[in-house]
Design brief:
The complex is a heterodimer of chains A (about 210) and B (about 180). Chain A is elongated, with a radius of gyration of 20 Å. In chain A, about 70% of the residues lie in helices and about 0% in strands. By secondary structure, chain A is mainly α. Chain A has one domain. Chain B is mainly alpha-helical and about 180 residues long. Chain B contains nine helices and no strands. Classes of the chains: A mainly alpha (about 210), B mainly alpha (about 180). Chains A and B meet through helix 1 of A and helix 2, helix 3, helix 4, helix 6 and helix 7 of B. Chain B: GO terms for molecular function: DNA binding; sigma factor activity. Chain B: This is Sigma-70 family RNA polymerase sigma factor. Chain B: Pfam families: Sigma70_r2, Sigma70_r4_2.
Chain lengths: ~210, ~180
């Protein structure tokens, strides 16, 4: 087929309209979310003292941290789904949860905490945390990758890593309502390790499936 | 250069608003620029220039299938060249070469290079043969026989909607096959 002929067939297909990447990503995450919630409801559940825990700023802070990861990661991943987009100028958004955690760790240190630092960091749920966040992330990660496949990222591994951050941030938000460890030191340690695992999986899979 | 790129942006806006003729003109206008850049990229990688047309066709298919990622408020050329660069790097990598693609390959085209021509390429034609019968028939009819959607529908006793679906699926399948080959 010569190029003029190909162009003719492309022009004939001009009426075809694809949805925006943001719409596809939103739909894919909404389809995946019930699976993650099912894992949560089956194996974890909301902690029994959730109502009273809401008065504890460190409990609330966990959600601020996880959502400040998930939402900026969605924004940056949509930005990077355009072929000419650069991370420059947008990457700082991903530092929001880091900044929040640093403030929370400082706040806790000033409040003369009841337990020594290592006990707060190690907590009681580290193993569950390391299993539950990646497990609940997987359906969301599949959804995020499916949604981003609709885009045209110039760096597929980076876009895949962002899909990992999106899914880990959302899964960690669920997990935070189950976990009784509220110390920001615990969050900074174990949530971060779990997120790093999911991000690495996202980058590895993304480098293959996000090429366009 | 500025004027040319503004013209492209205007054509693409019209195309997205449903003007098929503007879209056709735009694709015709960018093709010589893409071809010159593909040749230069191949030359730099020590590859024969006769594969340039395969790369041009891959770029055009990607432009078509990813045009919803173009922001109509943004200029068209940077978006186009980003896709072209990506496809050129992919193509050279597939041929087992270390790749250095210069952004300027796309941004700066000498006027003399951008002459009008068309050329055949082997890869799209080869993959065309692997498509399902219906998609192949529709693509052949529209691309090679220059039939309209309407005439193609009449020829194969299909609805126009079914022709459009087969055309789009055929183009998407071709692109996927080229990418994964």
């Amino acid at each position: 087929m010569d190029t003029d002929q190909l162009i003719r067939s492309l022009a004939a297909d001009n009426a075809h309209r694809a949805p925006r990447v943001g719409a596809v990503l939103t739909m894919a995450l909404l389809v995946a979310a019930p699976l993650s919630i099912l894992i949560f409801a089956t194996f974890l559940g909301v902690r029994p003292d959730a109502m009273s825990a809401m008065g504890n700023p460190f409990f609330d802070m966990k959600f601020a941290v996880t959502l400040s990861l998930a939402i900026p990661a969605i924004i940056v991943s949509l930005h990077l789904s355009r072929p000419e987009a650069l991370l420059r100028g947008w990457g700082w958004l991903l530092l929001l949860p880091v900044g929040l955690l640093a403030v929370a760790i400082g706040g806790e240190a000033m409040m003369a905490p009841a337990m020594p630092m290592t006990m707060r960091m190690m907590g009681k749920n580290s193993r569950v945390c390391l299993l539950a966040i990646p497990a609940m992330s997987l359906p969301l990660l599949a959804g995020a990758l499916f949604g981003l496949r609709h885009g045209a990222p110039s760096r597929p591994a980076l876009a895949g890593a962002l899909a990992g951050l999106v899914s880990a941030g959302l899964a960690a938000t669920l997990y935070a309502s189950h976990c009784t460890d509220d110390s920001p030191l615990f969050v900074a340690t174990w949530y971060t390790i779990a997120t790093a695992v999911v991000t690495a999986i996202g980058a590895a899979v993304g480098s293959r499936v996000l090429r366009y | 250069m500025r004027g040319r790129e503004d013209e492209w942006t205007g054509l693409m806006r019209s195309a997205m608003a449903g003007d098929d003729a503007a879209y056709h003109r735009l694709l015709k206008a960018v093709t010589p620029v893409l071809r010159a850049a593909a040749r230069r990229g191949l030359a730099r990688a020590g590859q024969p220039p006769d594969q340039a047309e395969d790369i041009v066709q891959e770029i055009l298919l990607a432009v078509h299938l990813k045009r919803h990622t173009w922001d109509s408020e943004a200029p068209f050329a940077p978006w186009l060249f980003a896709i072209a660069r990506n496809k050129l790097i992919d193509a050279l990598r597939r041929r087992g070469r270390r790749v250095f693609v210069n952004i300027d390959d796309f941004a700066e085209t000498l006027p003399g290079e951008a002459r009008e021509e068309t050329a055949s390429a082997g890869e799209v034609a080869a993959q065309l043969g692997t498509l399902p019968q219906r998609q192949r028939d529709v693509l052949q009819s529209i691309a090679v026989d220059s039939a309209s959607i309407k005439d193609t529908a009449a020829k194969f006793s299909m609805s126009e909607g079914a022709v459009r679906v087969a055309l789009h699926r055929g183009l998407a399948a071709l692109t996927a096959k080229l990418r994964d080959q």
